[in-house]
C-alpha cells in the first residue's frame, strides 16, 4: 500500500521529490478519470455531510455541478470541501481476520471551490461532467438553454491539494499463519455495462448509438 | 426520484408516516447491505475530510474500524460524522444535456459514533465488518488475537438519523425534446467478481473455498 502526497506546497513537496510528484499527478488523473461518481464532504451547520455526485475533469480542475437551490453546494462555496473517488478492485482474503482488506485506488482532493461564471466556461465544465460518465453524448443531445444554465451552479476545485492511495496484490499474512489451512488470495471485482434499455417513450426508428453500444463490450475495474 | 426521511424524531417523522418509516428502514438496510464500502466524512482541523472504508451492520448499528493510530477515526469520536453508501445502477442518457443522470441507491447516515469496548462486542462488530465484504470468511480464518484487538479501534454509529435516496427508470426529458433524433435510455451497470487469484505464497493443496467460488457466479447491481 502506498500513499503518495501530491500537494506541491513547500511544506508537502520537497524539491527532491519533484520527479515523483509528476508521477503521482498522473496517478491522480488516472483514478479521477476511471471513477464514475465522487463523494463530496461539506460542512453544514457545523457537521460534515457526505453526498454522492457526478464530476468531470479538465486538466488541473475538478468540476462539480448541481441546482442553484442546493444547500449543500452553496455550503461548499463558503469553506473547504473534500472530494473522494474510490475504485474497488477486489476483495483480499487473508488467513487471519485482521489482514482482510480490499484492493482499491483512492483519490482524495481538498480545497476551497470557486463558482464558475461566464457562459463559455460553464458550458465547457458541464460538457466535461457529462462526457465523463457518457463519452460521446454531449454532441448528440440538446445543449443547456439559458434557463437551464441559470438554474445550474457549477463549481471548480483545483487539484493541487490531493492524495492518492493504492492497494494491489496479494494478502499480506503473518508468517505464523502461512502453514494453516485457510485460503488466501484476491477476488477481483469489475464493473460491466449491461444491454442498453431504451426509454419507453423513445421515438420509433432511433437506434442505440455507437457511443452507448461500444461501452457494453468493455469490462473495466470498478 | 424519491427522498425518504428516516429520522424518527418528532420533527422529521410525523405519526401519519409511521407505516412509510418502516418501509424506509428496510430500504436503508437494503442499501447498506448491498454496498461494499462507505465514504466517511469527519471534521479534521475545521475542514471536512472524506475517506473510503469498509463497514458492517448489525440490526440498528453501523460498525467502522481502523487502527488506534488513525487520526481520522479518533477525530470521528469527537463530533458528528456522515457516512455515505452509494450503489450506481446505471447511466441515464437523456435527449438534453441537463437531464442526463444516474440510476442509483444512496444511503446517508449522520450521528456521533461511540467506541465499542468489551471484547465480545468488539469481536462481534469485527465479524460483521469482515462478513459484510467476505461472507463465510470469518469462521475459516484465524480470529484477532489480544495484540491485534488492542491495536484496533471499533466505532458504532446508530442508524436512527439517516436518509435514503433512490433513482431508477427512464430518462425524464422535456416534452419538446421527444421529437428529436437523440437516443434516450439507461445503460445498466453491474458488478461482477472475476476468477479468484490465489496468493503467491498459498500452501499447496489448499483449494479455493466454496464461500469464495460461489461469489463469482453472481452478477449484482453495484
3D structure, described in words:
2 copies of one chain form a homodimer. Chain A is α+β, with helices and mostly antiparallel strands and 222 residues long. Chain A has one domain: Pnp Oxidase, Chain A. Helix content of chain A is 21%, strand content 37%. Chain A contains 5 helices and 13 strands. The first copy, chain A, has helices at 18-34, 71-76, 119-133, 146-150, 210-213, and strands at 2-5, 37-44, 47-54, 56-58, 61-67, 81-93, 101-111, 114-115, 152-158, 162-167, 185-193, 197-198, 219-221. In chain A, strands 1, 2, 3, 6, 7, 10, 11 and 13 form an 8-stranded antiparallel beta sheet that branches. Chain A has a 4-stranded antiparallel beta sheet with strand order 4-5-9-8. In chain A, β4 (56-58) and β5 form a beta hairpin. The two termini of chain A are 18 Å apart. The model of chain A is unreliable at 1-5 and 8-17 (pLDDT under 50). Chains A and B meet through β2, β3, β6, β7 and α3 of A and β2, β3, β6, β7 and α3 of B. β11 (185-193) of chain A pairs antiparallel with β12 (197-198) of chain B.
Give the helix/strand layout.
Two copies of one chain form a homodimer.
Chain A lengths: L1 E4 L12 H17 L2 E8 L2 E8 L1 E3 L2 E7 L3 H6 L4 E13 L7 E11 L2 E2 L3 H15 L12 H5 L1 E7 L3 E6 L17 E9 L3 E2 L11 H4 L5 E3 L1
Antiparallel strand pairs in A: 1-10, 2-3, 2-6, 4-5, 5-9, 6-7, 6-11, 7-10, 8-9, 11-13
Number of strand segments of chain A: 13
Helix residue percentage of chain A = 10-25%
Low-pLDDT windows of residues of chain A: 1-5, 8-17
Calculate the mean pLDDT score of chain A and round it. Answer: 89
User: If classified by CATH, what would the architecture of chain A be?
Assistant: Roll
Interface with most residues: A-B, 89 and 90 residues
Shape of chain A: globular
What's the number of helices of chain A? 5
Amino acid at each position: 500500500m502506498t500513499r503518495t502526497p501530491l500537494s506541491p506546497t513547500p511544506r508537502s513537496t520537497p524539491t527532491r521529490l519533484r520527479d515523483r510528484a509528476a508521477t503521482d499527478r498522473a496517478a491522480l488523473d488516472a483514478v479521477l478519470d476511471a471513477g464514475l461518481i465522487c463523494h463530496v464532504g461539506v460542512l453544514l451547520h457545523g457537521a460534515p455531510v457526505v453526498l454522492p455526485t457526478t464530476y468531470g475533469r479538465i486538466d488541473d480542475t475538478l468540476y462539480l455541478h448541481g441546482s442553484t437551490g442546493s444547500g449543500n453546494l452553496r455550503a461548499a462555496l463558503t469553506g473547504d470541501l473534500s472530494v473522494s473517488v474510490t475504485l474497488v478492485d477486489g476483495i483480499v482474503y487473508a488467513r487471519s481476520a485482521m489482514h482482510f482488506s480490499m484492493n482499491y485506488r483512492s483519490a482524495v482532493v481538498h480545497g476551497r471551490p470557486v463558482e464558475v461564471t461566464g457562459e463559455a466556461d460553464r458550458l465547457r465544465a458541464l460538457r466535461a461532467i457529462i462526457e465523463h460518465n457518457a463519452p460521446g453524448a454531449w454532441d448528440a443531445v440538446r445543449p443547456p438553454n439559458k434557463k437551464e444554465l441559470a438554474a445550474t451552479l457549477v463549481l471548480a476545485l483545483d487539484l493541487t491539494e490531493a492524495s492518492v492511495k493504492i492497494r494491489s496484490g496479494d494478502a499480506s499474512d503473518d508468517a505464523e499463519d502461512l502453514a494453516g489451512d485457510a485460503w488466501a488470495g484476491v477476488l477481483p471485482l469489475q464493473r460491466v455495462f449491461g444491454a442498453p434499455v431504451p426509454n419507453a417513450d423513445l421515438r420509433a426508428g432511433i437506434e442505440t448509438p455507437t457511443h452507448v453500444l461500444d461501452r457494453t463490450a468493455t469490462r473495466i475495474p470498478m
